Amino acid sequence: MAKTLQQIISDAKAGKLAPVYLFSGEEGYYLDQLSDYFENNIVEEAYRDFDQMVVYGRDTNMLSVIAAAQQMPMMSPRRLVLVKEAQGLRKDEWETLAHYCERPNPCTTLVFVYRNGCFDKRLKAAKAVEKVGVVFERKKVQEREAAEEVLKWVSEAGFRITEKAAMLLTTYLGTDLAKIANELSKLCILLKPGDTISESTIESNVGISKKYNVYELQNAIGNKDAALCTRIVNHFSANPKDNPLQLVTSVLYNYIVNLMIYLQLEDKSKDAASKALGINPFFVRDFATAAPNYSLGKLASCIGYLYDTDLRSKGIRNSGTITDGELLKELVFKIIH
Predict the structure, then answer these.
(1) Fewer CB within 10 Å: N-end or C-end of the chain?
(2) What's 197-241 look like in SS3?
(3) Are 291 and 263 in contact (CB under 8 A)?
């Protein structure tokens, strides 16, 4: 059956272990959490040399994996066979797993961690595991989910974070949850339990300016605030390593596309717009503020400006004398005028 990450770990802690697990998807952070939990908690450390086998798909084959799973534990009540990077196994081998699932060893926990994509549900193995074991699948998180994961992670760690600070992190670090969790872990070491992570905390310890950042730039563009745009762009030009042009244009592209979507929504309520745009409801108001300042035609032109800037930043249509800072200034000027 399909279960959430929390359900799988909660059941395992309670001793409710299935004979076979199949974890797959594009979001490595969740797969790492599950893989690490099983590797470090199913078999006691003293017995792992006898009753735990960890292999990589590219270094083994399904027959060897099944043979290991069929063995009885020697010292521990349960044996663990963990196959990491299971996508390295040949596709034609998975039918062997389907046969094993017909009579799995009740004393073995067999775990497959399949990365870089979701396991093919059409295969017999997928249906067989779902029938007798546990299936977990997670696609890449979207921007809205990343911000929600930040709020959840911080809460579970015993801290709080402002929504704007969470947005700053996801804007600069993208939806790479492992990278975000790493930064949050470092922040939490510096704080007392119950403290709030604010934009100032992010600025002081992660190196992201709360005043001059790409999130504030997109809002200044939305408001057509030329003076603020100029100050932020000048700051970016003076600190190109902290604010690379490729990052800025990528965020602005997503912003322009979302603004185009927002303009065409029949239902522009906070919840409906949040769902349509894939963002936290808190930030819908930014699009509501920007909407009267732009038409669909103007936004379509902005996409063209972004595309041209991207090409020129890579040396195409660029003589080589224009810096990234100058390209950004030109881009923002075109967008807001």
Answers:
(1) C
(2) ECHHHHHHHCCCCCCCCHHHHHHHHHCCCHHHHHHHHHHHHHCCC
(3) yes
> Which pTM value belongs to this model?
0.64
Structural tokens at position 13: 């802690």
Tell me the pLDDT band of 214, cut-offs 50, 70 and 90: confident
Contact 274, 280 (CB under 8 A): yes
CA-closest candidate to residue 63, choices 83, 38, 43: 83
Mean pLDDT score of the chain: 89
- What are 85-100's pLDDT values in tens digits? 999 999 889 999 999 9
Tell me how far apart the alpha carbons of residues 245 and 249 are, in angstroms, rounded to a whole number.
Answer: 6
Given a contact cutoff of 8 angstroms between Cβ atoms, the answer to whether 84 and 116 are in contact is no
In this prediction, residue 180 has a pLDDT band, given cuts at 50, 70 and 90, of: confident
Beta pairing class for 52-56 and 79-84: parallel
Q: Edge to edge, what strands does the sheet with 134-138 contain? A: 52-56, 79-84, 108-114, 20-25, 134-138
d(CA 189, CA 187): 5
Q: Are 139 and 27 within 8 A, CB to CB?
A: yes
**Which residue, chain included where needed, has tokens 């193995």?**
125
Burial per residue of 94-119, b for 16 or more beta-carbon CB atoms within 10 angstroms, e otherwise: bebbbebbeebbebbbbbbbbbeeeb
Q: Say if residues 270 and 195 touch (Cβ distance below 8 Å).
A: no
